[in-house]
């Protein structure tokens, strides 16, 4: 069994971040392969299904990040912020007026192009 801990192990210094990531790491014994490392009651199809689930979760995170960076999720962010504003009680006395997606888009265009936005 390979023991990895922060500090000196066999003359090699292991950073604490790496040691925490590798905690519980078991190298393959000689002659062992991937299929021999599967747990009892676990088959290759379960392993493949778990891999596809992780790939799908990574793709969803990447798509969400891309939507945030490109501004495509701006209307959903607006609705989330308005809901938080109403739930916090900051809008007492007047009912909140929510914009439709088309009105939100036109308002964003107006805010973007109503002032000078060049460097020179």
Number of helices: 4
Q: What proportion strand? A: 5-15%
Structural class: mainly alpha
- What order do the strands of the largest sheet run in, or round the barrel if closed? 1-2
Total DSSP E strands: 2
Q: Roughly how much helix do the residues carry, as a percent range?
A: 40-55%
Spatial shape: elongated
Distance between the termini: 65 Å
The radius of gyration is 26 Å
The H-and-E topology, N to C, reads as: EEHHHH
> Spans with pLDDT under 50 lasting ≥5 residues?
1-9
Largest sheet features? 2 strands, antiparallel
- Please state the oligomeric state of the protein chains shown: single chain
Mean pLDDT rating: 76
Structure in words:
- Residues 1-9 have low confidence and may be disordered.
- With 120 residues, the protein is mainly alpha-helical.
- It has a two-stranded antiparallel ribbon with strand order 1-2.
- It has helices at residues 16-21, 44-70, 74-87, 101-113, and strands at residues 7-9, 12-14.
- It has a domain at 7-70.
- It is elongated.
Name the features.
mainly alpha, 4 helices, two-stranded antiparallel ribbon, 50% helix, 5% strand, 2 strands, 120 residues
Short summary:
The chain has 120 residues and is mainly alpha-helical. It contains four helices and two strands.
């Amino acid at each position: 069994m390979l023991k990895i801990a922060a500090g000196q192990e066999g003359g090699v210094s292991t950073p604490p971040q790496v040691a925490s990531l590798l905690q519980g790491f078991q190298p393959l014994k000689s002659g062992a392969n991937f299929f021999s490392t599967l747990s009892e009651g676990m088959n290759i199809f379960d392993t493949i299904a778990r891999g596809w689930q992780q790939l799908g979760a990574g793709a969803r995170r990447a798509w969400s990040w891309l939507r945030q960076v490109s501004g495509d999720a701006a209307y959903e962010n607006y609705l989330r912020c308005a809901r938080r504003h109403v739930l916090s009680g900051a809008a007492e006395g007047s009912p909140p007026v929510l914009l439709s997606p088309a009105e939100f888009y036109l308002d964003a265009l107006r805010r973007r192009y109503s002032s000078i936005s060049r460097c020179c």
